[in-house]
Give the backbone structure.
Amino acid sequence: MTTINDATPTPAQTELDLQYNARATVPDIAPMLRAYATLSAQARSTLPCALNVSYGEHPDETLDIFFAQGNARAPVFIYLHGGYWRLLSKDDSSFMAPALTAAGMTVVAVNYSLAPAVSLDRIVDQTRRAMAWVQNNIGHYHGDGQKLIISGSSAGGHLGGMVLAHGWQASYGFDAQGLAGAVLLSGLFDITPLVNTHINEWMRLSPEDARRNSPLFELPNNGPPLIVSYGSNETMTFKQQSQDFLTAWKTKGFKGEYVDMPDTNHFDLVLHLNQPDSPLVQKLLRLLDLGGPPR
């Protein structure tokens, strides 16, 4: 495993650390993390749902499923949380369920094991197994396994990109034709630079690990419509990650668009998924033919 060098960092390394330090772009992360947890707890306590549903044998391999209102075969919004692969859980990740279930979607919040206890390869494997489980079982929970939307923020955006990647589907029993779209927010799509940052203190990635787990280099042969966005105050490197992935996606001939979200940051951007009139939700509804006329 590779970790960052203990020697005095060069100016370039220092700048790279700053560019990938999302927490430094906001005065205080705590209010937004509290919002994730509080709104998610409210969703669990007020909405029809199935909690702690297992998709695998490990205790971490669980889902929370929130049932669409008035739609027995609903599109399924699957959310992968961020936290640089080492923080948060599904318990912080269903805050969008009130707005999206009311709009006619079933919502799934995915739990996975965290670094450094497990490798990124293991986390990607769990995410893909969760996707296959949802596709094959969501019919029992008011969902349509052939109309899946994969979504995630930050590290969850990376994991969503690894769901879109080619080559894994057959061995997991997953039908990629069932992906109706992707909504990836502030994602990391080329993680090779992270090998030389403080993030590798807990990720322990070799250059080969990082390359293998970079969605930018694993694009599929057929891709669903893609929506990307990022906070307006994010670092240039975070913004460039999404723009580069979107450009590569469209170069392959796939549909994709960027949604501008003014006055947002890396952490509060995703909370707009619980606001029915937000540009992100409106784009999602039109993608699924659940919205009204174009705004």
Remarks:
- The chain has one domain: 50-287.
- The two ends are 50 Å apart (CA to CA).
- Residues 50-287 form a domain with the Rossmann fold fold (CATH 3.40.50.1820).
- The longest strand covers residues 143-153.
